[in-house]
């Protein structure tokens, strides 16, 4: 019916001028009513007044229909530009909408706000269809037909959408926000990023320092249990916020923890500085922490700072609890080794550990024995070469000019291990100003046994002789043994002139430095 009426109206408007100009004679002056240029009232034939609109149209009135004259005829919905121009969607400022009984009302769309932001993925919900005249069926959100398109009115969009330019757009901006499309900007607020409501803050609009955005509102960090301008959560090691700084106090660290230098230190069951639930500092006689208690930890299965079990190369625990060791006694070592200072070392058994001064000391074969243990403490003997024999006489001048001696001499013997060091000195007595003293060192026990004293053949054992000082002055030397065995020291005199003496009183000192603590005499 609507389409028939529309067709009839279009045809009628087309032929009306022809009918007026081509009628039977000139019309009487009072036959036609002068109609304003912007409104033409027509009562089509065979159509009763008031039946022209029909459902979905805005044309009303008992006997007339109003059509806005323009180059573009208005649709049956009664909406059209008053000046023949409009926006892209056929509407524009000043558009008129023909309401019931021909009353011309204002435009029903928003004016003075930004265009709707396109959100193709956000569409108004389907709330059914309505009859929109020439457009046929239109969604309830856009119930009006304008220039052949379904458009919205001021309040036709559903909750969460607003009308602009004939389209319903989602309320996601600061001017249209939330289900009620509130203006957040007018309240000094922002539309939350999901468009659900107006907020004071969000991820794009942070709060001022010292405040944190909670559910769209700025709240004080201190009230939230947070700390500092960055509103951080204080970690367990510094759980308290004091003047914007995370730190701890005496009782703030909780169970099995204590506050040290402003930070919580958690106590373990094996830390001797923070031991067990009470955070004890383990000290002697129980310096170690085991299972949360201070203990000595000097057992083979619980030894040392960590109270670990001893095994492998160190199967025994030092009695003082300092750690695991290879041995505690000689039986813990293999044959040929002994336990020394909790370590297995080669068992050296030196001879001559004790003094033996019973021999005469006049011959190499009757030398005095200087014990190693005594020499370690420094052996000292004061005696003289008066009335002694001349058992050692290196008088072959051309072979040993530095050792050309006269007669009287005395002999000392000591047993050395490889690496042992001896320091020997012999000093004439104060009243022996003419005594030209000499020192000699031999390896072994043979010395120079040429009793004739001529062309000695056994001086191959001589290590060195020393006769560097003047008359009445002492001689000394130091020697390091390269092999294990006996060594012989000889005190002799040298006759270099009638005024010199080759004998006299003297004092000898001999000091031994051992490579092994017990000098291999243990």
Q: Round the mean pLDDT to the nearest integer and report it.
A: 75
The amount of helix comes to: under 10%
Outline the biggest β-sheet.
Answer: 5 strands, mixed
Enumerate how many helices there are, as a single number: 2
Radius of gyration, in angstroms, nearest whole number: 63 Å
Distance between the termini: 135 Å
Q: What does the overall shape look like?
A: rod-shaped
CATH architecture of one domain: Sandwich
Question: Given this structure, which CATH class of one domain is correct?
Answer: Mainly Beta
Widest sheet, order of strands: 30-32-37-34-35
The total strand number stands at: 38
Helix-strand makeup class? mainly beta
